[in-house]
Specification:
Elements lengths: L20 E6 L3 E8 L2 E4 L10 E2 L2 E3 L5 E3 L1 H4 L9 E2 L10 H4 L9 E3 L8 E4 L2 E3 L1 H20 L5 E6 L5 H13 L3 E7 H8 L10 E8 L4 E9 L2 E10 L4 H16 L3 H6 L1 H18 L4 E6 L2 E6 H25 L9 E5 L6 H11 L12 H13 L16 E5 L3 E6 L7 E7 L9 E7 L9 E8 L12 E7 L4 E8 L4 E8 L6 H13 L1 H30 L6 H20 L2 H31 L5
Parallel strand pairs: 1-11, 11-12, 13-18
Antiparallel strand pairs: 1-2, 2-3, 2-4, 5-6, 5-7, 8-9, 9-10, 13-14, 14-15, 16-17, 19-20, 19-22, 21-24, 22-23, 24-25, 25-26
The structure holds adenosine-5'-diphosphate (ADP) and magnesium ion.
Length: about 625
């Protein structure tokens, strides 16, 4: 196992001392980048040297330009369908997972296949959450490069403790697409604790709570720190509770005060925008004074701290209920919690701070800027990885990702590069053909999105899967890496308990130079790789829809009119042609067209089938 510092520019193995690894907090509302110079943390600010926060918002101009940050934020209300916010909520998510909050987003998310990953549509182009996040990362990277005065190629990026494997992998991919070698994905609460020095000392043995109230999300994590290792004992929270809700209660109050109806706001976007901005300003001001007043469109608005506190009391109580649940899940009580760390811009609200301190019956850690602590901790973790803190021992890590080949020759990493060794991970797959009996599992090592460019470690066949319809088998592929770097791969069909496994020596016969070259290739080719990957995925999805719509016609012949069947066939043919000849955007457009046409027909078919099944039944 090795840690290889490579220079992305020329592929040489880099000396430890000349690399800066940056720390990035890729937030739902705001993102930041920080680094360590001579032992001190610097959070990079904008050109005016004022703001360290980059709003996580992306605006697409009608001329194809892309704007990220404060500029994009100012277009949220005036141009919602071209202004993308909260992409973090969509990372690694299938349409199925996000359906229930589609209404909350002002832009368009696309569903062709319930199980496929979410896409976002602006004009006739389709974007993935990964590529949108990479736009934010590119801006952060450029900011830091300007501040440091040299190119940056390595980063630590933070994610919420509750992020699953797919969400973490999506975050890594976004980093890669922005030209960054993601050395490690770190939990946000872990980074915040590090920023306060908790866990930096190997002798530290503590249980702590990290309370994070951001713009749109709340989470609390209970962490156990032991031997420099952070273990998440439990997390709880509400992914739709944050500072934005504090703004909303103020807006509603003012709407009542001024007799402004929803209809008025709908027809006067600028008034809505002004109310929103003034409400946030009021909230922030009330964190340090007792009253706020301003003028909107000639109307006097004001609010006192006491009124504000009354209005948000129940929201704050909700967060405390989550803290209670987190304690319960960790099987701990308040007495077991040695420290409480405050994270997120909304913890600046005095009532929040006081309520959390009262709940945990102790003073909370709040000396550091709550919206900067995660980025600061990420920078510290990066500094440790860069080898600048000799007192801090690094765990063994995997030098290259390990994964398997999926449809279309794509690499699906199961154990990402830089994961702790020993360790393991698994993922579930299924079949794509009815009655499929055998499944080939081919194992690869490397960072490229296409297996043909990676190193094949071996393959085996999971045999004798009992006959089932495509998509029914649940095939779990598990990777286990022991302390000597021996990889065991096991595949099991969970319904029938059919299983096979093999053992592979994953680092055998590969030199440091070769590893460095593989890494370099992956970053230099990230953009074209991700394009090819997106095309293969679109083709694959399109093919599934072509087949599904054929099945739909077959099953519903008596319900469909002949012209409807003809029209479906025309659209299917268009989609098939696009799959054969065109790029991903065209394929996506044809999928959308077919889907839009068949959705009402499918609803009609469903109603009909329900009626049929009720007929003859006595009620
Ligand atoms: P996220 O982690 O979701 O990206 P942040 O930690 O940056 O979000 O928190 C953003 C939220 O913090 C916003 O709702 C913002 O209005 C709020 N906030 C920032 N400063 C203050 C303040 N002084 N008082 C109250 N709320 C604040
Ligand atoms: Mg945050």
């Amino acid at each position: 196992m090795a840690k290889i510092p490579i220079n992305i520019k020329d592929g040489t193995v880099q000396k430890e001392e000349d690399q800066t690894i940056v720390g990035i907090d890729l937030g739902t509302t705001n993102s930041l980048i920080a680094y360590i110079k001579d032992g001190d943390v610097t959070v990079v600010k904008d050109e005016q040297g004022k703001n360290s926060l980059v709003p996580s918002i992306i605006h697409f101009g009608s001329n194809g330009s892309i704007e990220v940050g404060a500029g994009a934020r100012s277009k949220l209300i005036s141009n919602p369908e071209r202004t993308i916010y909260s992409v973090k909520r969509l990372m690694g998510k299938a349409y199925d997972d996000v359906q229930n909050f589609e209404d909350y987003l002002g832009y368009k998310i696309i569903n062709e296949d319930e199980a496929a990953l979410v896409k976002i549509k602006v004009d006739d182009k389709f974007y993935t959450p990964v590529s949108l996040s990479s736009e934010i990362l590119k801006v952060l990277k450029a900011r830091a490069e300007k501040a440091i005065g040299k190119a940056i190629s390595k980063a630590v990026i933070t994610v919420p403790a509750y992020f699953n494997d797919a969400q973490r992998q999506a975050t890594r991919d976004a980093g890669k697409l922005a030209g960054l070698d993601v050395m490690r994905i770190v939990n946000e609460p872990t980074a915040a604790s590090l920023a306060y020095g908790l866990g930096l000392n190997r002798e530290d043995e503590k249980v702590i709570a990290v309370y994070d109230l951001g713009g749109g999300t709340f989470d609390v994590s209970i962490l156990q720190i032991q031997n420099g290792i952070f273990e998440v004992l439990s997390t709880n929270g509400d992914t739709f509770l944050g500072g934005d809700d504090f703004d909303k209660v103020i807006i509603n109050q003012w709407k009542t005060d001024l007799n402004i109806t929803d209809e008025v706001i709908k027809s006067n976007k600028s008034l809505g925008q002004q109310l929103r901005l003034a409400a946030e300003e009021a909230k922030k001001q009330l964190s340090s004074s007792d009253n706020f007043s301003s003028n909107i469109d000639g109307h006097e608005v004001s609010i006192s701290k006491t009124t504000f506190e009354d209005l948000i009391k129940s929201l704050v109580q909700k967060t405390l209920d989550s803290c209670n649940k987190a304690l319960k899940d960790a099987e701990l009580t308040i007495k077991d919690i040695q420290h409480v760390v405050m994270v997120g811009g909304s913890t600046r609200v005095p009532l929040v701070k006081q309520s959390v301190a009262d709940f945990f019956d102790q003073e909370v850690f709040d000396e550091l800027d709550p919206d900067e602590v995660v980025a600061k901790g990420a920078a510290l973790q990066a500094d440790i990885l860069a080898g600048n803190r000799k007192d801090f021992l690094l765990l063994d890590i995997t030098p290259l990702s390990l994964g398997i080949e999926t449809v279309g020759g794509l690499m699906d990493p199961i154990i990402p590069r830089n994961s702790k060794v020993p360790g393991g991970a698994g993922r579930q797959y299924t079949t794509s053909v009815d009655g499929q009996k055998n499944l080939k599992i081919a194992i690869y090592q490397g960072e490229r999105d296409l297996v043909e460019f990676n190193r094949k470690l071996g393959e085996f066949i999971l045999k004798d899967i009992p006959p089932m319809a495509a998509g029914m088998p649940k095939i779990e592929v598990k990777f286990m890496l022991d302390a000597d770097g021996i990889l065991t791969v096991k595949a099991e069909e969970l319904r029938s308990k059919t299983e096979t496994q093999i053992e592979i020596k994953s680092t055998y016969g590969i030199s440091e130079e070769e590893m460095a070259k593989m890494l370099l290739d992956s970053i230099q080719n990230a953009e074209s790789d991700i394009k090819i990957k997106a095309l293969l995925e679109a083709k694959n999805e399109g093919q599934n829809i072509v087949l599904a719509s054929a099945r739909f016609i077959k099953q519903n012949q008596e319900i469909l009119e002949p012209e409807e069947i003809a029209q479906i066939n025309v659209l299917r043919e268009n989609l098939s042609k696009a799959i054969k000849n065109d790029g991903k955007d065209k394929i996506n457009l044809e999928m959308e067209a077919l889907n839009n046409y068949t959705t009402p027909l499918a609803e009609r078919a469903m109603d009909y089938n329900i009626k049929q099944s009720l007929q003859g039944k006595k009620i």
